[in-house]
Amino acid sequence: MSERPDLNADLDRVMRRSYGKLLALLVAYSGDLDASEDALSAALLRALDVWARGGAPDNPEGWLLVTARRRLLDDKRRASRHRSLLRKMGTPSDADASESEVQIPDERLRLLFLCAHPSVDANARAPLLLRHALGLESDRIAGRFLCSPDAMRQRLSRATRSIRDAGVRFEVPGFDELAERVGCVLDAVYGAFGAAHDELHLEGAVIETGATDALELARACAELMPDEAEAHGLRSLIAACLSRRAAQRDERGVFIPLDGQDTGRWDRALLDEAEASLRRASLTPGAGPYRVEAAIQSAHAYRRLSGSDNWADIVDLYDLLVRLRPSVGALVGRAAAIGEHLGPDAAIRALDEIPVARVTRYQPYFAVRAHALQRLGDRDASARALRSAIGLTADAGVRAYLLDAVRA
């Protein structure tokens, strides 16, 4: 019997929404990342056959999980090594569980800490977590790290081999190991949020679920490690960004920049959560990049009360962020803030300080440059920058906003 024409699309939506959660549950069950991925792939192939004949079940994720678990159990039984495998995998039964074992409430968060193993190259940890624990596709991960999909696939392949070659046991790390790995885990959660947030208006509920899941993971991490200030900073940052969803588009779906948004449409509950988490993060001396980014969002949120942004304070915060983590996003954000505080000439100078190779694939760089050039009255150069930004934009609403700017 031929497949329903929409079956592949249905399965793709299920896997994009739930891959990371399903894989985390399977690894928690088996303790074996490779075997869990194989079992999930086998369940997907079986779904293509079974669902084509009888239709998709009411709970497709549950069906895939049960089918994959059966595959794992069958493999164990065929090898007649069930008990030895459990010991090797470091997955004790409830009766054998130590009272001192760290309890991680979210299985996806558990897998994130498992994958953030020191044997994995530091530059590959966040991409590896995004792929295996959170289910992002290689192409989307590449976009977050501003590299080609082929280069990202090679990086992920090397990281997976390093785990296998090192004989990493998938067991829950102790509290001291959690502290060593938390930075990488926070980076992965933020990367997943960024990918989902950028595409909120491309694929609707599937992507929105990803953004909300990232907030849930940030909350779980902050609750797991209440003394980790950066975990509270990330929770504040994500909550603040999500609070503005309803104000980011007009009735036609066209993007509305931050300074044009109706602050009355911002979600008050999420703003309150963001401020409470930032206060919690501020109890620890020093500064980390997520705390600083959350403080920048808090400064923007203050416009609800004052009616205007305090650009001098925002520039100071960006200066600190660039010292802590000189990412392309931080450098471009700093240039945009400098433009608002000191004028478009200063924005152009700040943009020109960024190496060209770092921004060739980064859409916000060209959008900020176009805005500054437009304010300087250089319409031709502004239009060229806008066309570059449009070429790097997949979001129809952002593209419409940029096209309107070209015509202005």
Can I get a quick summary?
This protein has 408 residues and is an all-alpha fold.
Task: Determine the N-to-C terminus distance.
Answer: 55 Å
Number of helices: 21
Helix vs. strand class: mainly alpha
Radius of gyration: 23 Å
Describe the structure.
The chain is mainly alpha-helical and 408 residues long. 71% of the residues lie in helices and 0% in strands. Helix 9 (175-198) runs parallel beside helix 12 (229-242), helix 13 (268-281) packs across helix 14 (289-301) and helix 16 packs antiparallel against helix 17 (328-342). Mean pLDDT is 81; it is low at 80-102 and 203-207.
Fill in the keyword field for this structure.
globular, mainly alpha, 408 residues, 21 helices
Annotate the secondary structure layout.
Elements (H helix, E strand, L loop, with lengths): L6 H24 L2 H22 L5 H20 L2 H8 L17 H9 L6 H11 L5 H7 L4 H18 L8 H24 L1 H4 L1 H20 L4 H14 L25 H14 L7 H13 L1 H4 L4 H14 L3 H15 L1 H9 L10 H14 L2 H13 L4 H12 L1
Helix pairs in contact: 1-2, 1-3, 1-5, 1-11, 2-3, 6-8, 6-9, 7-8, 9-11, 9-12, 11-12, 12-13, 12-14, 13-14, 14-16, 16-17, 17-18, 17-19, 18-19, 19-20, 20-21
